[in-house]
Design goal:
heterodimer; A: about 280 residues; alpha+beta
Amino acid sequence: MNIKITHNWLLEYLDTDATPLEIQKYLSLCGPSVESVEKTEDGDYVYEIEITSNRIDSASVFGVALECQAILPMFGKRAKLILNPLEKYRFEKIETRHASSLQVTIKNPSLCSRFSAVVLDNVKAIPSPDFIQKRLRAIGIKVINNVVDISNYLMVTFGQPTHVFDFDKIGKHTMIMRESKKGESIVTLDEKKVELPGGDIVIEDGNGELIDLCGIMGGLNSSFTDKTKRVLLFVQTYNKQLIRRTSMLTGQRTIWCRASKIIRKCSGCKCGNRYSI
Amino acid sequence: MAGTDDIRSQFNNELKHVLDLDKLQLLETSYLGRNGKINCLLEQMKSKTPEERKKYGQEINELKRSLTLQIAQLKTLLSTRKDRTDDVDVTLPGITYPRGSIHLVSIAIEEISRIYEKIGFIRTSYPEVEYEFFSFESLNMPKSHAARDDFETSFIDAPVHSKWGKMLLTPHTSSGQVREMWRVGKPPIRMINIAKTYRPNWDATHTPMFFQFEGLCVDEGINITHLKGTLDHFVKEYFGSDIEGRLRPHHFQFTEPSFEVDVTCTVCKGTTKVKGAKCKVCKSGWLELGGTGMVHPNVLKAGKIDPKKYSGWAFGFGVERVIMMKYGIDDIRNYYAGDIRFLEQF
């Protein structure tokens, strides 16, 4: 599979004196094959990198930075990580108990190896910062608003898919994760109705409605909109075999599902979570 | 009379310059032909009085007769001349009859086969219509593994085998690896398998059916140096001594470690420039040849060979690709379009 990242994005995590063309040459010789390097209008460079299925850990900006740190010094180039987001993070305050917290039930533990979610209050939908917009556009991801963009930005940076719900649209603030039954359907974010073949990982809310086709795409009914006040940030690691099966049977191939199919590390969840906040 | 005299003198002048039959023919046509000068004179008869016509007609006929006689005489002379230019040279070769030639792909297969035969490999061939087990399971790709997605496969509507699974058209010649291990039983194994493979793709660099050649070498103490050595030998023998090969990291389920093989671009010879302009064919001076690696222990186990005692390497290249690189052909569909003008060049 191929991923796209930009040079300036990479430089946030990597301190190096190598030029984009040098990075292309040396990485391709010893690691992931950099298929192309293209210059953008504002002086950034977009890399298209081929990631083999055994090295999904390198399918992100941070992953490529780690590869650079290992490979570039062998050719006499300086390359050091500026910060390791897997280790360093902190935030001011998080309430673990609240009047309206989320009730979660997971029907079958084999569906999902790690489930983490956080409610964020006083959220307003505004355009995201310039640098996020530029980078997302450069790699071909649609720019919508700050919350959705951050979710996508993190996925490309860490390789961990995240999702954002409108907390108040989740019926009775309850989530039940279970396998779908054949014939059930859900309307996804792109306004398409998907009929489920049964056995897919889905989330049902307190009102009995399906609000998420896990690992593939969120539901339209619980999505983040301009009117949302409270946001549920949702980061998971799913059973990859089930995700692949659902993807094949429903014909959905989204960037989230590609990553979910092969992802192994659960710690990505934790850091993805913290960084979003 | 004026008109006829003019024509007569013109004719005599031109006759002196006629040295061969072709020119004589032209002369005859221009004077005695339908639109010839004689007939033009005859046209003018209409404007003469009846008494004048008789005389005029006689003179023209007289002219015609003498011109015809002169032409006939010269014709006889030219036909019997000894230094005629239409003599037959009997030492020339006879008429050539059209002769067939071998298809470009067959020629390449023979060349490749010969290179490996000389270093002790055996050429075998294994089924193109295979079972799932040999194409995937035995190559460390269990059912419902994501690695199978990389190989678009055509399945056949046939009964499922209880042990070997579904029937399919093999997407790679690696399906012959385990079969060869079973056939030989105990190493050493040195195999070349050249066969058709099927993947449902169709564009300038892919056809739904194409040829692949697979190499497999299993023995005690086989390591990456043997692999590199054999590949280098092939590259130099097939492309020429000025072409090099190199290995880059990659991933295949049935080899560990896995590599991709590159060769120096045959068009720009690795310089990335063709007559000052950037070489369009290669990526920075190198062309991708195919994939290779050390045989995965699981594959050896499936082949009933003890991975603790034996090791091996394997590679797989597309035959059309290799030919394209040697001759600089840019569209793979040329091979199978059936155009004689393309095929007869080889």
